[in-house]
Amino acid sequence: MPPPAIANRSSRRRKLWELEQQFHCPLIGVCFDVDHLRKLLSRHFHCPRELSDFKLHTSAVAACGERSQLAEVLQKDLEKRLQLSIRRFAGAKSSAALRELWRTAVLSGSELPGALWACWTHPACDRELGLDIYGEIHMIQHQVGGSTRADLGTLSALRAETQRLREQLETARGESELLRNEKVSATQTMSRQIAEQRAELAGKEASIESLRNEIDSLRQEIPELRDRQALARRVHESESRLASAGARNAELERQVAELEHQLRQALALRARAVPESDESDESALDATLRAGPADLGGKCVLCVGGRTAAIDNCRQLIEVRGGRFLHHDGGREESLHRIDAAVAAADLVICQAGCISHSAYWRVKEQCKRTGKRCLYIKTTGISGLSRLIDASAQETLVAEE
Fold it and tell me: What is the DSSP string of 287-318?
């Protein structure tokens, strides 16, 4: 015979102790978590800590058979925690509508405890629907148990994997800590080195600044320092150019000396090849004076070169003809620079080419050409040849004037 709560239907929701006895076990197992149930019982009753989960569950199920203090505590807790589901299922007015809501809850699996409590306590829940729900929740518990066993195996494997990963993590942490310590040590070393280098750099900068101040002070004390430095550089450059010019001049002098030596050798060979006159310079001078020489009209005659012993004879020869005598030895003892002044003072230049240096010869020729002075060249150094040359020149001058 069914319980009065199932046989006599009304609009009032049923209480926990009004449900069929067989509904209490799945209801307590589904709607109460073991930890929550233990905490709830410990709050209102004496619940030893060593009480097992199974005994805790069976004690709660046994208390639901009649209206007791524990049953009321469980009733109040279910109403409070599952009130959202209760309100949603309250809209069902028939057993069919209630069954549809239960099916939806089972398919979603999200609010199974609330749907179970709301359905079994609903006024529209008849015996048939209650037993169907009981069968479904019973099978669901079996499935959950199988799934739980599989999950326990998986959990065991996961725990082993977790332990292995923890060990690896600890090893990695140790290595990371070692690397971090090494990095910290290296960083501290680098920081010390950077600090030392910065201190050294600061010292160098201070030294540089001090030297700059000293240089500025020296520049202020010696305002013409830059001018002196520039002058010293110019002197150094001038000395370098002078040394180069001296070396060049020495090379040119060596070449001139070599050319003069070659010229003297050539003149000596030519002198040996040309026979000397039978008469001496003295006899030639006497003969020239007796011959009635031409008048030079006070002109200045410059003789370049000639033998030293014949200079007086040349002077007498020119002065007898009414001329003024100038002489230059052609660079043997006198400076070649005096040739320019001598040529400028002379009216007629006689160059005895066989008795002067090559440099003197070209200097006389160039100076006569530049000043427009007439220059007579004679190869021999005899008085007779010089007399004939002067007479011929004087005769040409008279003819040109006529």
Answer: HHHHT-PPP-TT-EEEEE---GGGHHHHHHHH
